Amino acid sequence: MLRIYDTRARQVEQIAPARAMRMYTCGPTVYRHAHVGNLRSQLLSDLIRRVLERQRVRMVVCQNITDVGHLADDSEAGEDKVLMRARAEGRSARDLARYYEDAFKQDTAALNLRPPEHMPRASESIELMIELIAKLIERGHAYALPDGAVYFDATSFPTYGEISGNRLDALRPDTTDPRKHFHADWALWKPSDGELSWDAPWGRGFPGWHIECSAMSLHYLGDRIDLHTAGIDLRFPHHEDERAQSDSAAGHEVVRHWVHGEHLLFDGRKMAKSTGNAVLLSDVTEAGLDPLAVRLAFLEHRYRQQLNLTWDTLHAADRTLRRWRARVAEWSESPSAPMAADHVRRVESAFDDDLDTPAALRVLRELERDESVAPGAKFESFLHLDQVLGLDLAIEIGRSRGTALPPGAAELLSERARAREAGDWAASDRLRESLAAMGVRVSDSPSGQVWG
Ligand SMILES: [Zn+2]
Fold first, then answer.
1. In 3-state terms, what secondary structure has residue 29?
2. Cα-based angle 42, 30, 137 (whole degrees, multiple of 5)
3. pLDDT digits (tens, 9 = 90+) for 172-228
4. Residue 27 C-alpha to ligand 1 middle, in angstroms?
5. What is the pTM of this model?
6. Ligand 1 center to residue 242 CA distance, Å?
7. What is the pLDDT of residues 355-374, one digit of tens each?
8. What angle separates helix 36-54 from helix 375-389, to the nearest 10 degrees?
């Protein structure tokens, strides 16, 4: 079973076996394009999902879309990021948010990130937030001010700070709002009658960013969540506040494992719009590279290592990707053979070992070169492992014969292989139909799927 670094426990922990698991991933604030650093955080939950699904766990994943309430500089005082950008671009907040939400979905699809089961928009979940805030007020964890602002009472949650180590008594007082009972209290609701505002029992306004994730995760996944992932920058205050809210409402620890992905540097500098080195996925494809070269470049490093990406590493990943796809196509012409069991086992145990993807890729390179392994066995092994790698390694098969797979088909074939291994025949049939609609006819042989 998968072992993973739990930020709160500060150690690698075994994920307890279960038939179904629930995972929450903090989603994008849709006021601009996600840069590849943001996308690296998203890959983390996809990898966890793929590894657990290989182990026949049924995953239910929820990822929010923040289209209101995320203030500039993550501070309590700044302006809403979506509103600010909408004004600058001269369009409505709703248009702007939908545009960048679509762009995010395109980018994540291009990286073969499996779509979450639930993707609620904050602006359409206001009722959930109002209910949760009312519950927190009722239980003495939050208080409303006469102007309609509602704050969470940080001192009402004694274990605050367990994820990041930022304990309340050590926090530097922040004096942005003298009406708070305690300097570290944070806003659950902010009074406003602007473009993005709703009526609430304590007055018209909009929700704080932190309460959004609590409300949506509790509603869509319930109050026992196996895994919660995001980039390391959300550890504090976002996740501390989210944990305090969710646990105070549920009366127990809601999230079992908090998992964080490290920062991405580009050319040695933190990727941020403000420093002018935000690289978008479209920059990568415009440079003639396959978007999945980005995925492979990410996999060359473990998720909790800082990764310094450069154009050279992206070009190198692109060359490896093209070579592997060509090899897989070549090997597919050879007589079929069972998988190279030892190599496959070593790759899978690397995945299980806190997602040690660099070790997994080293074994793949070894397998590629190993002349004692039959080409048919290499073919089966690479395709099998691609269920977790997600690199579309089958995409070149048949291209020389003019029977190349149409875009998206390789991913469906890999999903279907997974469904069949899990004995999910309904899903397998459904995927066969989707493939047929793309003009790919699939049949099943003793060594796996055959298509033409
Ligand atoms: Zn969140």
1. strand
2. 90
3. 776 667 888 988 999 999 999 888 899 999 999 999 999 999 999 999 999 999 999
4. 7
5. 0.88
6. 7
7. 999 999 999 999 999 999 99
8. 120
Q: Distance between CA 452 and CA 442 in Å, rounded?
A: 7
- Determine the Cα–Cα distance for residues 218 and 69; give it in Å rounded to an integer: 18
C-alpha closest to that of 186 among 215, 160, 216: 160
Beta bridge partners of 29: 66
For residue 234, which amino acid is it? L
Q: What letter represents residue 36's amino acid?
A: V
In which residue ranges of the chain is pLDDT below 70? 73-77, 174-176, 273-274, 400-404, 445-448, 452
Helical (H) or strand (E) element with 331: helix 311-331
Torsion angles phi and psi, residue 149, rounded to 5: -75, 145
pLDDT in tens, 20-75: 999 999 999 898 889 999 999 999 999 999 999 999 999 999 999 999 878 776 55
The gap between the terminal CA atoms of the chain, to the nearest Å, is: 35
CA separation for the pair 215, 132 (Å, rounded): 6
Between CA 168 and CA 208 the distance in angstroms is 20
3-261: CATH topology: Rossmann fold (3.40.50)
The rounded Å distance from CA 238 to ligand 1 centre is 6
Buried b (16+ CB within 10 A) or exposed e, 50-85: bbbbbeebebbbbbbbbbbbbbeeeebeeebbbbeb
Q: Which residue has the tokens 């793309």?
A: 438
**Where are the alpha helices (H) located in 91-208, listed in sequence order?**
93-110, 126-138
Cα of 19 from ligand 1 centre, angstroms: 25
> Which residue carries 């605050």 as its tokens?
160
Asked if residue 116 lies in contact with residue 61, where contact means CB atoms within 8 angstroms, the answer is yes
Residues near ion ligand 1 (Cβ under 5 Å): 26, 213
Nearest one of 255, 132, 243, 173 to 142, comparing CA atoms: 132
Q: How far is the CA of 421 from the centre of ligand 1 (A)?
A: 33
Residue 232: partners with Cβ closer than 8 Å, 6 or more residues away:
260, 261, 262, 263
Distance 50 CA to ligand 1 centre (A): 21
E strand or H helix at 384: helix 375-389
Each domain of the chain, given as residue ranges in start order, spans 3-261, 266-404, 405-452
Exposure b/e, 164-175, CB count within 10 A at least 16 = b: bebebeebeeee
